[in-house]
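Mods, move this if it's the wrong board.
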Amino acid sequence: MWGLCLNLQAAEKFLLMQEARLGQLKSAYSGKEEPSIPPEAKGMATKIVKEADKRVGKPVITITENENLQASKDPHDYFSIGRYFWPDPSKSDGLPWINRDGETNPDAVKASDEKKLGEMIHAVEYLSLAYYLTGQEKYGAEAARYLRGFFLDAETKMNPHLNYGQSVPGQKTGRGSGLIDTRGFMILPDVLKLLKNCPTWTVKDREEMKAWWIQYGEWMQTSKIGLDEKKTTNNHGAAYDVQLSAVLVMAEKEDEAKKVLGESLPARLDAHITPEGKQPRELARTKSWSYSCFNLKNICKGAVMARSLGIDLWSHEGEGARGSLRKAMLYLVPFLKNPEEWSEKQITKLDSKEARYWLDVGAAVYDEEAIRSAQKEFAPMEKADVTDW
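Not the wrong board. C-alpha coordinates:
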Protein backbone atom coordinates (compact mmCIF):
# COMPACT_ATOMS: atom_id res chain seq x y z
CA MET A 1 0.00 0.00 0.00
CA TRP A 2 1.58 3.25 -1.14
CA GLY A 3 0.15 5.12 1.80
CA LEU A 4 2.56 3.28 4.08
CA CYS A 5 5.40 5.10 2.33
CA LEU A 6 4.43 8.24 4.25
CA ASN A 7 7.51 9.21 6.22
CA LEU A 8 6.53 9.98 9.78
CA GLN A 9 10.02 10.14 11.22
CA ALA A 10 11.76 12.91 9.34
CA ALA A 11 11.04 16.07 7.41
CA GLU A 12 10.19 15.49 3.75
CA LYS A 13 11.77 17.12 0.77
CA PHE A 14 8.29 17.81 -0.60
CA LEU A 15 5.22 19.28 1.09
CA LEU A 16 2.47 16.95 -0.16
CA MET A 17 4.08 14.47 -2.52
CA GLN A 18 5.97 11.62 -0.89
CA GLU A 19 9.56 10.97 -1.96
CA ALA A 20 9.16 7.22 -1.49
CA ARG A 21 6.18 7.15 -3.85
CA LEU A 22 8.00 9.27 -6.40
CA GLY A 23 10.99 6.95 -6.25
CA GLN A 24 8.77 3.91 -6.76
CA LEU A 25 7.11 5.54 -9.77
CA LYS A 26 10.47 6.41 -11.31
CA SER A 27 11.83 2.92 -10.77
CA ALA A 28 8.67 1.36 -12.19
CA TYR A 29 8.75 3.60 -15.25
CA SER A 30 12.38 2.65 -15.93
CA GLY A 31 11.39 -1.02 -15.89
CA LYS A 32 12.84 -2.07 -12.57
CA GLU A 33 11.15 -4.95 -10.78
CA GLU A 34 11.71 -4.95 -7.04
CA PRO A 35 9.61 -6.18 -4.10
CA SER A 36 9.36 -2.61 -2.80
CA ILE A 37 7.65 -1.39 -5.97
CA PRO A 38 3.86 -1.90 -5.78
CA PRO A 39 2.19 -3.43 -8.85
CA GLU A 40 0.16 -0.28 -9.44
CA ALA A 41 3.25 1.91 -9.87
CA LYS A 42 3.96 1.07 -13.51
CA GLY A 43 0.41 1.86 -14.59
CA MET A 44 0.38 5.11 -12.64
CA ALA A 45 3.71 6.24 -14.07
CA THR A 46 2.58 5.43 -17.60
CA LYS A 47 -0.66 7.33 -17.06
CA ILE A 48 1.21 10.40 -15.81
CA VAL A 49 3.37 10.53 -18.93
CA LYS A 50 0.35 10.00 -21.21
CA GLU A 51 -1.50 12.83 -19.47
CA ALA A 52 1.56 15.05 -19.83
CA ASP A 53 1.78 14.24 -23.55
CA LYS A 54 -1.79 15.49 -24.01
CA ARG A 55 -0.67 18.92 -22.82
CA VAL A 56 2.55 19.26 -24.80
CA GLY A 57 2.35 22.02 -27.40
CA LYS A 58 -1.14 23.14 -26.43
CA PRO A 59 -1.90 26.85 -25.87
CA VAL A 60 -1.11 28.12 -22.40
CA ILE A 61 -4.05 28.26 -20.00
CA THR A 62 -4.98 31.77 -18.96
CA ILE A 63 -7.83 33.60 -17.29
CA THR A 64 -7.47 36.65 -19.53
CA GLU A 65 -9.89 35.32 -22.15
CA ASN A 66 -12.86 35.45 -19.76
CA GLU A 67 -15.30 38.13 -20.89
CA ASN A 68 -17.28 38.02 -17.63
CA LEU A 69 -15.32 40.83 -16.00
CA GLN A 70 -18.31 42.44 -14.28
CA ALA A 71 -16.98 44.70 -11.49
CA SER A 72 -13.36 44.36 -12.59
CA LYS A 73 -12.38 45.86 -15.90
CA ASP A 74 -9.02 44.11 -15.85
CA PRO A 75 -8.90 40.72 -17.63
CA HIS A 76 -5.92 39.77 -15.44
CA ASP A 77 -8.13 39.74 -12.33
CA TYR A 78 -9.37 36.32 -11.29
CA PHE A 79 -13.17 36.18 -11.40
CA SER A 80 -15.74 33.70 -10.18
CA ILE A 81 -19.36 33.58 -9.06
CA GLY A 82 -20.38 31.62 -5.98
CA ARG A 83 -21.47 28.25 -7.35
CA TYR A 84 -24.48 27.94 -5.03
CA PHE A 85 -25.99 31.30 -6.00
CA TRP A 86 -28.93 31.60 -8.38
CA PRO A 87 -31.09 34.39 -9.82
CA ASP A 88 -33.97 35.28 -7.51
CA PRO A 89 -37.12 34.07 -9.33
CA SER A 90 -39.21 36.65 -7.48
CA LYS A 91 -37.30 39.55 -9.10
CA SER A 92 -37.70 40.57 -12.71
CA ASP A 93 -33.95 40.95 -13.15
CA GLY A 94 -33.11 38.12 -10.76
CA LEU A 95 -31.02 40.45 -8.60
CA PRO A 96 -29.57 40.03 -6.15
CA TRP A 97 -28.85 36.35 -6.61
CA ILE A 98 -29.78 34.09 -3.70
CA ASN A 99 -28.02 31.17 -2.04
CA ARG A 100 -29.25 27.59 -2.52
CA ASP A 101 -26.70 25.70 -0.46
CA GLY A 102 -25.32 22.60 -2.14
CA GLU A 103 -27.08 23.25 -5.46
CA THR A 104 -24.52 24.12 -8.13
CA ASN A 105 -25.57 26.72 -10.69
CA PRO A 106 -23.99 25.69 -14.04
CA ASP A 107 -24.18 29.28 -15.29
CA ALA A 108 -22.10 30.45 -12.33
CA VAL A 109 -19.52 27.76 -13.01
CA LYS A 110 -19.39 28.60 -16.71
CA ALA A 111 -18.79 32.29 -16.02
CA SER A 112 -15.95 31.63 -13.58
CA ASP A 113 -12.18 31.25 -13.95
CA GLU A 114 -12.07 28.31 -11.53
CA LYS A 115 -12.07 25.68 -14.29
CA LYS A 116 -9.14 27.34 -16.07
CA LEU A 117 -7.24 27.51 -12.80
CA GLY A 118 -7.80 23.80 -12.19
CA GLU A 119 -6.74 22.92 -15.74
CA MET A 120 -3.50 24.84 -15.31
CA ILE A 121 -2.69 23.12 -12.02
CA HIS A 122 -3.35 19.66 -13.47
CA ALA A 123 -1.21 20.50 -16.50
CA VAL A 124 1.85 21.59 -14.54
CA GLU A 125 1.43 18.72 -12.09
CA TYR A 126 1.44 16.09 -14.83
CA LEU A 127 4.20 17.80 -16.81
CA SER A 128 6.52 18.29 -13.85
CA LEU A 129 6.00 14.68 -12.77
CA ALA A 130 6.68 13.47 -16.32
CA TYR A 131 9.88 15.52 -16.30
CA TYR A 132 10.92 13.84 -13.06
CA LEU A 133 10.03 10.34 -14.27
CA THR A 134 11.56 10.50 -17.74
CA GLY A 135 14.27 13.11 -17.40
CA GLN A 136 13.12 14.53 -20.74
CA GLU A 137 13.57 18.28 -20.93
CA LYS A 138 10.50 18.73 -23.12
CA TYR A 139 8.22 18.08 -20.16
CA GLY A 140 10.03 20.52 -17.90
CA ALA A 141 10.00 23.12 -20.66
CA GLU A 142 6.27 22.69 -21.13
CA ALA A 143 5.59 22.97 -17.39
CA ALA A 144 7.66 26.15 -17.35
CA ARG A 145 5.70 27.52 -20.31
CA TYR A 146 2.37 26.90 -18.59
CA LEU A 147 3.58 28.50 -15.35
CA ARG A 148 4.88 31.57 -17.17
CA GLY A 149 1.65 31.90 -19.10
CA PHE A 150 -0.53 31.83 -16.01
CA PHE A 151 1.61 33.74 -13.52
CA LEU A 152 4.37 35.73 -15.22
CA ASP A 153 3.87 36.76 -18.85
CA ALA A 154 2.63 40.34 -19.15
CA GLU A 155 -0.14 39.55 -21.62
CA THR A 156 -1.64 36.53 -19.87
CA LYS A 157 -0.67 36.58 -16.18
CA MET A 158 -3.11 36.54 -13.28
CA ASN A 159 -2.90 39.44 -10.85
CA PRO A 160 -1.86 38.24 -7.35
CA HIS A 161 -5.21 38.71 -5.60
CA LEU A 162 -8.76 37.36 -5.50
CA ASN A 163 -10.69 40.58 -5.05
CA TYR A 164 -13.37 39.30 -7.43
CA GLY A 165 -13.60 35.68 -6.31
CA GLN A 166 -17.00 34.09 -5.57
CA SER A 167 -18.89 37.26 -6.35
CA VAL A 168 -22.67 37.41 -6.04
CA PRO A 169 -24.45 39.29 -8.85
CA GLY A 170 -26.37 42.26 -7.49
CA GLN A 171 -24.86 41.82 -4.03
CA LYS A 172 -21.05 41.52 -3.76
CA THR A 173 -18.24 41.98 -6.26
CA GLY A 174 -16.05 39.55 -4.35
CA ARG A 175 -16.01 37.56 -1.10
CA GLY A 176 -13.52 35.87 1.18
CA SER A 177 -14.91 32.50 0.16
CA GLY A 178 -13.25 33.02 -3.21
CA LEU A 179 -10.04 31.72 -1.66
CA ILE A 180 -11.47 28.22 -1.66
CA ASP A 181 -11.20 28.38 -5.47
CA THR A 182 -7.40 28.49 -5.25
CA ARG A 183 -6.89 25.63 -2.81
CA GLY A 184 -5.16 23.84 -5.69
CA PHE A 185 -2.19 26.15 -5.11
CA MET A 186 -1.29 23.73 -2.28
CA ILE A 187 0.42 21.36 -4.73
CA LEU A 188 2.51 24.01 -6.49
CA PRO A 189 5.45 24.01 -4.02
CA ASP A 190 6.04 20.40 -5.05
CA VAL A 191 5.65 21.20 -8.74
CA LEU A 192 8.33 23.86 -8.38
CA LYS A 193 10.61 21.43 -6.53
CA LEU A 194 10.25 18.90 -9.33
CA LEU A 195 11.43 21.61 -11.73
CA LYS A 196 14.38 22.73 -9.61
CA ASN A 197 16.95 21.22 -12.02
CA CYS A 198 15.07 22.16 -15.18
CA PRO A 199 17.26 24.54 -17.24
CA THR A 200 14.22 25.96 -19.02
CA TRP A 201 12.77 27.10 -15.68
CA THR A 202 15.31 29.88 -15.31
CA VAL A 203 16.64 31.85 -12.36
CA LYS A 204 14.63 34.80 -13.66
CA ASP A 205 11.47 32.67 -13.71
CA ARG A 206 12.11 31.50 -10.15
CA GLU A 207 12.64 35.01 -8.82
CA GLU A 208 9.56 36.37 -10.58
CA MET A 209 7.48 33.47 -9.30
CA LYS A 210 8.74 34.04 -5.77
CA ALA A 211 7.76 37.71 -6.07
CA TRP A 212 4.26 36.69 -7.22
CA TRP A 213 3.79 34.49 -4.15
CA ILE A 214 5.10 37.21 -1.85
CA GLN A 215 2.48 39.62 -3.22
CA TYR A 216 -0.30 37.05 -3.10
CA GLY A 217 0.62 36.02 0.46
CA GLU A 218 0.59 39.64 1.59
CA TRP A 219 -2.83 40.08 -0.01
CA MET A 220 -4.12 36.98 1.79
CA GLN A 221 -2.95 38.34 5.14
CA THR A 222 -3.77 42.05 4.84
CA SER A 223 -6.74 42.57 2.50
CA LYS A 224 -10.29 42.73 3.83
CA ILE A 225 -11.30 39.79 1.67
CA GLY A 226 -8.33 37.71 2.79
CA LEU A 227 -8.95 38.51 6.44
CA ASP A 228 -12.66 37.75 6.06
CA GLU A 229 -11.74 34.25 4.92
CA LYS A 230 -9.23 33.85 7.73
CA LYS A 231 -12.02 34.55 10.24
CA THR A 232 -14.32 31.83 8.93
CA THR A 233 -14.90 28.91 11.27
CA ASN A 234 -15.80 26.10 8.86
CA ASN A 235 -13.89 24.30 6.10
CA HIS A 236 -12.98 27.64 4.51
CA GLY A 237 -10.89 28.67 7.50
CA ALA A 238 -8.93 25.42 7.53
CA ALA A 239 -8.35 25.58 3.77
CA TYR A 240 -7.15 29.17 4.22
CA ASP A 241 -4.47 28.06 6.67
CA VAL A 242 -3.28 25.21 4.47
CA GLN A 243 -3.19 27.31 1.31
CA LEU A 244 -1.43 30.16 3.12
CA SER A 245 1.21 27.74 4.39
CA ALA A 246 1.96 26.57 0.85
CA VAL A 247 2.09 30.16 -0.38
CA LEU A 248 4.50 31.13 2.39
CA VAL A 249 6.79 28.23 1.49
CA MET A 250 6.85 29.41 -2.13
CA ALA A 251 7.59 32.92 -0.88
CA GLU A 252 10.54 31.41 1.04
CA LYS A 253 8.97 32.28 4.39
CA GLU A 254 9.11 28.82 5.90
CA ASP A 255 9.16 30.04 9.51
CA GLU A 256 5.85 31.83 8.94
CA ALA A 257 4.40 28.69 7.35
CA LYS A 258 5.44 26.68 10.39
CA LYS A 259 3.67 29.17 12.64
CA VAL A 260 0.42 28.81 10.70
CA LEU A 261 0.60 25.01 10.73
CA GLY A 262 1.82 24.78 14.30
CA GLU A 263 -0.46 27.35 15.94
CA SER A 264 -3.43 28.42 13.82
CA LEU A 265 -4.35 25.07 12.28
CA PRO A 266 -4.32 23.13 15.61
CA ALA A 267 -6.67 25.74 17.07
CA ARG A 268 -9.00 25.18 14.13
CA LEU A 269 -8.86 21.42 14.70
CA ASP A 270 -10.05 21.92 18.27
CA ALA A 271 -12.89 24.14 17.06
CA HIS A 272 -13.86 21.89 14.13
CA ILE A 273 -13.78 18.38 15.60
CA THR A 274 -15.72 17.24 18.67
CA PRO A 275 -14.46 14.58 21.12
CA GLU A 276 -16.62 12.09 19.19
CA GLY A 277 -15.01 13.03 15.88
CA LYS A 278 -17.95 14.98 14.47
CA GLN A 279 -17.53 18.19 12.48
CA PRO A 280 -20.62 20.21 13.49
CA ARG A 281 -20.08 23.10 11.07
CA GLU A 282 -19.95 20.71 8.15
CA LEU A 283 -22.82 18.59 9.44
CA ALA A 284 -24.99 21.70 9.27
CA ARG A 285 -24.65 21.84 5.48
CA THR A 286 -27.06 20.37 2.94
CA LYS A 287 -24.23 18.08 1.80
CA SER A 288 -23.00 17.14 5.26
CA TRP A 289 -21.10 14.00 4.22
CA SER A 290 -19.42 15.77 1.33
CA TYR A 291 -18.29 18.70 3.44
CA SER A 292 -17.15 16.52 6.33
CA CYS A 293 -14.91 14.66 3.87
CA PHE A 294 -13.83 17.85 2.13
CA ASN A 295 -12.80 19.55 5.35
CA LEU A 296 -11.00 16.45 6.59
CA LYS A 297 -9.16 16.15 3.28
CA ASN A 298 -7.88 19.72 3.45
CA ILE A 299 -6.89 19.40 7.10
CA CYS A 300 -5.04 16.16 6.33
CA LYS A 301 -3.15 17.98 3.59
CA GLY A 302 -2.20 20.52 6.23
CA ALA A 303 -1.03 17.70 8.50
CA VAL A 304 1.09 16.21 5.70
CA MET A 305 2.62 19.63 5.06
CA ALA A 306 3.20 20.11 8.77
CA ARG A 307 5.00 16.76 9.04
CA SER A 308 7.19 17.82 6.12
CA LEU A 309 8.18 20.87 8.16
CA GLY A 310 8.76 18.91 11.35
CA ILE A 311 5.38 19.46 13.03
CA ASP A 312 3.15 16.58 14.18
CA LEU A 313 -0.59 17.14 13.87
CA TRP A 314 -1.47 13.46 13.51
CA SER A 315 -1.29 12.86 17.25
CA HIS A 316 -2.85 16.21 18.14
CA GLU A 317 -5.66 16.16 20.68
CA GLY A 318 -6.77 19.39 22.29
CA GLU A 319 -8.49 20.19 25.55
CA GLY A 320 -11.43 17.92 26.26
CA ALA A 321 -10.24 15.41 23.64
CA ARG A 322 -11.22 17.76 20.81
CA GLY A 323 -9.46 18.15 17.47
CA SER A 324 -8.33 14.57 16.82
CA LEU A 325 -7.89 13.68 13.16
CA ARG A 326 -7.92 10.01 14.07
CA LYS A 327 -11.33 10.35 15.74
CA ALA A 328 -12.67 12.35 12.80
CA MET A 329 -11.75 9.48 10.50
CA LEU A 330 -13.10 6.80 12.80
CA TYR A 331 -16.41 8.66 13.04
CA LEU A 332 -16.87 8.66 9.25
CA VAL A 333 -15.53 5.20 8.38
CA PRO A 334 -18.61 3.12 9.41
CA PHE A 335 -20.84 5.05 7.00
CA LEU A 336 -18.74 3.98 4.03
CA LYS A 337 -20.09 0.45 4.40
CA ASN A 338 -23.51 1.57 5.63
CA PRO A 339 -24.33 4.86 3.88
CA GLU A 340 -28.03 4.45 4.63
CA GLU A 341 -27.25 5.01 8.31
CA TRP A 342 -25.98 8.55 7.68
CA SER A 343 -28.74 10.58 9.33
CA GLU A 344 -27.51 14.09 8.53
CA LYS A 345 -28.75 15.99 5.51
CA GLN A 346 -27.10 14.99 2.22
CA ILE A 347 -28.94 16.16 -0.89
CA THR A 348 -26.65 14.14 -3.17
CA LYS A 349 -25.67 10.48 -3.01
CA LEU A 350 -23.13 9.63 -0.32
CA ASP A 351 -19.98 9.04 -2.37
CA SER A 352 -17.12 6.96 -0.98
CA LYS A 353 -14.73 8.61 -3.48
CA GLU A 354 -14.88 11.75 -1.36
CA ALA A 355 -13.09 9.84 1.39
CA ARG A 356 -10.21 8.64 -0.79
CA TYR A 357 -7.50 11.11 0.26
CA TRP A 358 -8.00 10.96 3.99
CA LEU A 359 -8.38 7.18 3.90
CA ASP A 360 -5.08 6.88 2.08
CA VAL A 361 -3.09 9.04 4.48
CA GLY A 362 -5.04 7.77 7.49
CA ALA A 363 -4.09 4.18 6.68
CA ALA A 364 -0.46 5.27 6.55
CA VAL A 365 -0.51 7.23 9.77
CA TYR A 366 -2.74 5.33 12.16
CA ASP A 367 -2.54 1.75 13.37
CA GLU A 368 -6.31 1.42 13.09
CA GLU A 369 -7.72 -1.67 11.43
CA ALA A 370 -11.01 0.10 10.67
CA ILE A 371 -9.24 2.81 8.67
CA ARG A 372 -6.86 0.42 6.92
CA SER A 373 -9.57 -2.02 5.89
CA ALA A 374 -11.74 0.86 4.63
CA GLN A 375 -8.80 2.15 2.61
CA LYS A 376 -8.31 -1.23 0.96
CA GLU A 377 -12.00 -1.49 0.09
CA PHE A 378 -12.91 2.08 -0.82
CA ALA A 379 -9.62 3.71 -1.81
CA PRO A 380 -7.48 0.97 -3.39
CA MET A 381 -4.33 2.30 -4.99
CA GLU A 382 -5.02 0.57 -8.30
CA LYS A 383 -7.89 3.03 -8.75
CA ALA A 384 -5.95 6.07 -7.57
CA ASP A 385 -5.29 9.19 -9.58
CA VAL A 386 -2.23 11.38 -9.26
CA THR A 387 -4.47 14.04 -7.73
CA ASP A 388 -5.31 11.65 -4.87
CA TRP A 389 -1.84 12.17 -3.49
